[in-house]
Amino acid sequence: MEKTLIQPSIAALISSAIAIIYYRRKSLDLYGALVLFLSMTIHFAVGYRFGAMLLIFFCTSSKLIEDGEEKKRRMEAGLKDGRPNSWKRVLLNSGVAAVLSVAVGCLTGWEDKCLDSNESVLVTRLIGGIIGHYACCNGDSWSSEIGILSSERPWLITTSRRVRRGTNGGVTKIGHLSASAAGIVVGQTFALVGLHTTSCFDRMGMKELLVVPVSMVAGLLGSMIRSLLGATLQFSGFCVVRKKVVEKPGPTVRRISGCNYLGNDAVNLISILLTTLITSTACVYIF
């Protein structure tokens, strides 16, 4: 009963505070704030570790996007679409993990469980999926926002040909490092919060810290999957009139790479799903 009453109340308080703060800062519209509140409440109500991963992803990514917005506007015509302020964007970046969190809660009786395949392969797979989800989202966000602002000119991940900044599928060394660092942050958040809210370190020992390198690899993997999809199934071109990289073909647009099959949201969703699946499977064998 204590778990049932207290933790959801704390979850709602934390989530409402975060949603209100970002709504007032105009980082979220009203519906975006509502979806964030609901999703974050679900995460925290099931497990503090899950809510903390969503929180660290959302806060760091929002900060990076806001800091780089002015410089990116000079390079990309479609900047406005990339801001995480709508309910669709928030749902895209947290919806799958919210569903997995509910599944974990239902299977465990809303009790915190460890990454331990000997206890439950399915629960370990689901928790691993949530970790992979946020490592992917954070890795993609950090690599995109930091990589595009680096002095290094990106190269296309499929051909290694140098391309303009803002090209889908364009990668840089600093972008790869940023994706790895973003994954590490997610893994560390999971481990540190778990240290104070669960008994997993007492049961699993230092093996629990393996979540950090797993999350690091997931962050880099998610970013690379996103880049591969962007370079092949997402159009990139250079508009000779606006002098910017654009994502739609047109009479004034010179093709750089890719085909006009998928948009940003579809590419992001596929990369999230693939990384979630791969990480969940890996965790079964590691833990």
Automatic annotation (TrEMBL):
Its main location: membrane. It is a multi-pass membrane protein. The chain crosses the membrane at residues 6-23, 30-46, 174-197, 209-229, 266-286. Keywords: Membrane, Transmembrane, Transmembrane helix. It is found in: Membrane. Pfam families: DUF92. InterPro entries: DUF92_TMEM19. Belongs to the TMEM19 family. This is Protein PGR. It comes from Hibiscus sabdariffa.
